[in-house]
């Protein structure tokens, strides 16, 4: 299914965020953030360190509880959900790709086991099928199938990140949260990873919220862009529009700070 | 110090009361690990401090106690715990499974079927089946709470990926009444089927980890497995060399420097009982004194 078909097939937003606020004591994590995410859409969130991007993302994914506001996923209130249901959602319909794969992979478990974990968590009980799916997914993220029984500790950083992506996407989620997926990788590996992500997003019709401080990443992946500063959204719009014709002073600064090679 | 300076069964009544409450809770929620205030016992951790406390809380003067260690009645652990209770509780002791009312065991379930008037007490080193996969106690508790047991299958997956079969041969994880995943203590997986539908009360005590859990009689206990790699209660492919039993769990014993070996029942009482009944194994028939 293409992105356009997906969008026309569903007339309601996948994720609705309304007035989301998270405070750390007197400080603001993020304040009054509202947006709709439509099926098949990729939303980029950019901003400098400490601008509240990651706070926002972890609030959306239910890792932190916001102080104010509403998050609705397919007309279900995420914040009012029982934890069982939210965790089930985060194993099936959602995925979360973290910046540092080493913290989120099971380093003592083989690559196949890492990919298969979500399948087993939702009731997969057939070894042959789990292994087949794992092999298939390793192939999709360009990891050779003979590495399936190797542990992630034997993988390079780029491979670990791709393994993390495979591990997350194996249950065919609809909504993917990505927190700096290319952070800590060198540029050529970044480029391949971005290429891979773009292909996966298009092929699977994923909705993605991607947090990054790298404008090149959002330029390649995101349809829409939100710029955050000091916990607030200062500008949002189509990616090309925001990057090519920035209105807010901070966005102008951000865009002009990119090194032109 | 005289023996009279101990309360009956060593522990004071308040401590026994606390342990009994934990046991009752454990029986009410089969497979759930109940925290309890484990006491220091006059033996090192790892020697059955948890089991001893549970036994002490269960014993009444009319009880007849049997203690087994890896199936044997005459090994250090079994002998010292049996003496301990003979001295501090003055209860009768026995080596016969069918005569005992309370059986404390380390790493085996007796071959002789248990009866409804018996209590089987297990010594447990690490009660948390998810521990080696997830080191955080807060997280494993949450996983039990939310029934997130996918990780347990990751362990079995790793076994098959690495060894071509489920290589876990003891402490094989089980699911109790379709709810809690439980570590059955390091019993061989040969014994796992005996956990299910057992008429006796089964109590598990972990002293160092301060947990008690239980299986009430006739509880359904299922060993975890994959559809295409089903659970198999494995044992050595031999008969007992002393009593000839082909259906009991066997120990392999090296008998000389040339690598000669024999297989004997790990349950000594079961083996002796069969020999008394006239059964003879390969080595018993030829030279009974050598096997003694």
UniProtKB/TrEMBL annotation, chain A:
Q: Which UniProt keywords apply?
A: ATP-binding, Lyase, Nucleotide-binding
User: Which terms does the UniProt entry file under GO BP?
Assistant: organic phosphonate catabolic process
Question: Which residue ranges does the record assign to the ABC transporter domain?
Answer: 15-255
Asked if the record carries the keyword ATP-binding, the reply is yes
Alphabetized Gene3D superfamilies for the sequence = P-loop containing nucleotide triphosphate hydrolases
Which domain of life, per UniProt? Bacteria
Q: Which PROSITE patterns match?
A: ABC_TRANSPORTER_1, ABC_TRANSPORTER_2
The record's listing under SMART domains reads: AAA (SM00382)
A Gene Ontology molecular-function term? ATP hydrolysis activity
* Protein name, UniProt field: Phosphonate C-P lyase system protein PhnK
Source species of the chain: Paracoccus amoyensis
Automatic annotation (TrEMBL), chain B:
Entry keyword S-adenosyl-L-methionine:
yes
Q: Which reaction does it catalyse?
A: alpha-D-ribose 1-methylphosphonate 5-phosphate + AH2 + S-adenosyl-L-methionine = alpha-D-ribose 1,2-cyclic phosphate 5-phosphate + methane + 5'-deoxyadenosine + L-methionine + A + H(+)
Q: What does this protein do?
A: Catalyzes the breakage of the C-P bond in alpha-D-ribose 1-methylphosphonate 5-phosphate (PRPn) forming alpha-D-ribose.
What superkingdom heads the lineage?
Bacteria
Q: Which UniProt keywords apply?
A: 4Fe-4S, Iron, Iron-sulfur, Lyase, Metal-binding, S-adenosyl-L-methionine
EC number, as in UniProt: 4.7.1.1
| Natural source organism | Paracoccus amoyensis
What protein am I looking at? Alpha-D-ribose 1-methylphosphonate 5-phosphate C-P lyase
